[in-house]
Structure formats: C-alpha cells, structure tokens
Amino acid sequence: MKLVRFLDNQVVRFGKLEDGTIVELNDPDPDWSIRQLFETGRQFEVDAVKLLAPCLPSKVICLGLNYRSHAEEMNHDLPKKPIIFLKPSTSVIGTGEPIICPPQSKRVDYEAELGVVIGRRTYRVRAEEALDYVIGYTCANDVTARDKQPKEGQWTYAKSFDTFCPLGPVIETGIEDPESLIVRGYLNGKLVQEAPTADHYFKVAAIIEFVSGCMTLLPGDVILTGTPSGIGLLSLGDRFAVAIDGIGVLENTVTSMD
C-alpha cells in the first residue's frame, strides 16, 4: 500500500494511492496501525491535488557514513558505531516543493537516501523485532550545506535549514526487506548516485535498535539510512530526484532565499 498525505481545497487529507487515484483513508493519528485504517468513500485524482510530505515526523534521525563508497569520497574512516544526527520537523517538505538555499551557505549538496517511517512507539527494541515497528519506507534527500559541515563534527547545523529534508512521494508499506532496494539520484535527469541498500554498513534493523536505545521514536518519525557516493552541488534552478523502485520518485527544484 502506498500511503500519502495531500492537500485538497486547503484541507489536509490522508489516503492510499492506487493507479493515479487517491482513496481517502481516516486520519491515522496517533496510531498508525494499518489494521485501523479504513476508507471514507471519497476518491481524488492525484493530478488534481497537491501531494505533501507523507508524514509529519516529530524528528528525523539521520545516519552518517553508512556506505563505504561515501565514507571514501568524504575521506572518513567507517565508523565503529552508527553516527547519528537530527533534522528538525521544520526541514521537511514534500515532492514538488522547492529546496531553498540559505544565504549562509555557498555550497548546498544533494544526498539520495532511503527513509524508514516508524509506525508505533519504539523504545529499546532489539534488532530481531525492529522491523515490526516500521510502517513503511519512503524516498528522502538529506540536503546539506556542505561548507557549514566541518570535518570534526556539528553536522546538524549544516543539515537543518528549512526545506533541507524532502520526503515522499509515498510511504510504501509492502516492502519486506529494506536491504533489497536500489537508491538512485538524478540531477537534472542525469544519474549521479546509484547503490543497493544491501551496501548499508549498518542495516536498518540494527539502526533502529541503536537509535531506540537512546530515544523514543514516535509514529511518523523518520530515520534516514545514509547516502551512497556521488554527492554533489545543487545550483539554482536544478532539479534533483530520488528514485527507489517500488516506492516512487521524489523530485524537488532548487531556489534561493534571496
């Protein structure tokens, strides 16, 4: 099932996407149990509404250097434990919304990633049961003000500007193995990033165990699982797309605050 949030006549609604049609569902807040979702009887053509970010996370937890190829291009050693940082909820946007380059930065980069969407309250779970707490997966772009990311740390500042966390276009609930996907990034239609999630240095289940060991994850929270090599500069007017087979294509254009 492909879950979406969308705007219809200034009203935010929730639904499932089926062959270009959105079947409206009841609002899942605060329990995202699929068993408790039901159809309202209303349907909408996807081209007639505005797709929003598919969830409203209280926090976005991100993993750094989770692909060997990316660690090499950044001249970092692979970490012994997951490196995590946070993006605020205010950084989240949906597909089609602009990425806004802030005046503080002269170098804004794209990073195509798989996003893991938490489905129920999660705290101190073991890796063996961790995927049971996931409602589904989405495409993500960990946009980064690279010149504000010093090598010694402080990654959160560089990654937390408004619009720096595009998510979407859907949450796909039917993926059984998150390590069997391919993440691709396209800059103005040109393939610039491509890697299987099987190359994750830390697997999704292990990441959830690690993160939930120090913080409670709430329904709708998102974990970004790291980007492969091929990161690069975003310029004004660029279009960047994250494509993951079975999920969809997240695409955003780049503009400026000035």
3D architecture notes:
The chain is mainly beta. It has four helices and 20 strands. A hairpin with a 2-residue loop joins β15 and β16. It is globular. It starts with a strand and ends with a strand. The relative contact order is 0.23. It has two domains: 50 residues, SH3 type barrels (Roll), CATH 2.30.30; 197 residues, Fumarylacetoacetate hydrolase, domain 2 (Alpha-Beta Complex), CATH 3.90.850. 9% of the residues lie in helices and 41% in strands. The strands form three sheets. Strands 1, 2, 3, 4, 5, 6, 7, 8, 11, 12, 14 and 17 form a twelve-stranded mixed β-sheet that branches. Strands 9-20-19-15-16 form a five-stranded mixed β-sheet, with no helix packed on it. Strands 13-10-18 form a three-stranded antiparallel β-sheet.
Pick out its properties.
258 residues; SH3 type barrels; Fumarylacetoacetate hydrolase, domain 2; 2 domains; 12-stranded mixed sheet; 41% strand
Reconstruct the topology from this structure:
Elements (H helix, E strand, L loop, with lengths): L1 E7 L2 E8 L2 E5 L13 E7 L4 E2 L8 E5 L3 H6 L9 E5 L4 E2 L5 E3 L6 E3 L1 E7 L8 H4 L3 E8 L2 E2 L9 H5 L5 E8 L9 E6 L2 E7 L7 H9 L9 E3 L7 E3 L4 E6 L3 E9 L2
Strand content: 35-45%
Helix content: under 10%
* Number of H- or I-type helical stretches: 4
Low-confidence stretches: none
How many domains?
2
Order of SSEs, N→C? EEEEEEHEEEEEHEEHEEEHEEEE
CATH topology of the largest domain: Fumarylacetoacetate hydrolase, domain 2
How many angstroms does the end-to-end distance come to? 40 Å
CATH architecture of the largest domain: Alpha-Beta Complex
Based on CA inertia axes, which overall geometry fits?
Answer: globular
- The CATH C-level class name of the largest domain: Alpha Beta
Radius of gyration: 17 Å
Helix vs. strand class? mainly beta
Average pLDDT confidence is 93
Q: How many E-type strands?
A: 20
